[in-house]
Amino acid sequence: MDMSYEQMTTGEIIDYYKRVRSYIEQGFRVEGLKDELALISKTMKGKSSEMSGSELEQYLVEIDKYLKSIRH
């Protein structure tokens, strides 16, 4: 089954991303966080019509940076 957070509002997904980002910034580098980031990214792309292009791009670039920093 393909998971996403499509039922969440855009604000909720951004808030959730900020919590995940906080864990990463505190030094957590676990595989589960990488999976969460991938789902958040997918969901943001699906909600792209609800976000400005520059805002979406900012989050996606940041998520990609974090995805690369976490070993799989």
Word description of this protein:
Helices cover 68% and strands 0% of the residues. The chain has 72 residues and is mainly α. α1 (10-25) packs antiparallel against α2 and α2 (31-46) runs antiparallel to α3. The two termini are 21 Å apart.
What attributes does this structure have?
globular; 3 helices; 72 residues; mainly alpha
Brief summary of the model shown:
This protein is mainly alpha-helical.
Sequence-ordered SSE layout with sheet pairings:
Elements (H helix, E strand, L loop, with lengths): L9 H16 L5 H16 L6 H17 L3
Helix pairs in contact: 1-2, 2-3
Distance N terminus to C terminus?
21 Å
In this structure, how is the largest beta sheet organized?
none
Taking Cα atoms only, what radius of gyration do you get, to the nearest Å? 12 Å
User: Mean of residue pLDDT?
Assistant: 87
Q: What percentage of amino acids are in beta strands?
A: under 5%
